[in-house]
Amino acid sequence: MSKRVPADTRQAVVVYGDDQDSDESTAVLYERKGNAWKLTGTWPAHNGRQGWTTDHHLDDERSPVGAFSLTDAGGSLEDPGSRLPYWYDDNAYAAMTEDGDEHVHDFDYVIAIDYNRLKGVAPFDWNRPEGVEKGGGIWLHLDHGDGTSACVTVPESGMKTLLRTLNPRLHPVVVMGDRDHLSA
């Protein structure tokens, strides 16, 4: 993990799947104390319906492999105590689902994964610095029991822990992918 993480990072969420085509994964929170990484939380997770990719594109239903900073959070529910800047907007997140949609609560809490997005803006900002075709809008959000379009999902307890724990002064990142890519 260390070779993928910037030197100033003191918190890392590692999300890994068993193989490249799996939508099931595990999310693990680590905090660096000195030169050692300490495991501080673990949750079952889901990622893209089609698995992982090193060349993510819009609508490929694969989560991008890599290490990405975590700088902004938000949701359709009030801030539960996030240390990251938090944008509450029930209308913005509700617009992504329809009434009666089984995924209506997926975006109660989100943490933006800084893949093809501007930092320091709300997670639902749709600017794509590398172009729309490279996808974006990839978040950590509430789990709904199966694969996603490209996001990573964890149970509500995990999201609340991450929101209350990830500290911008500690330069948190997410390192994500299948085991083979992460061990390379």
From TrEMBL:
This is L,D-peptidoglycan transpeptidase YkuD (ErfK/YbiS/YcfS/YnhG family). It comes from Streptomyces murinus. The lineage of its organism: Bacteria, Bacillati, Actinomycetota, Actinomycetes, Kitasatosporales.
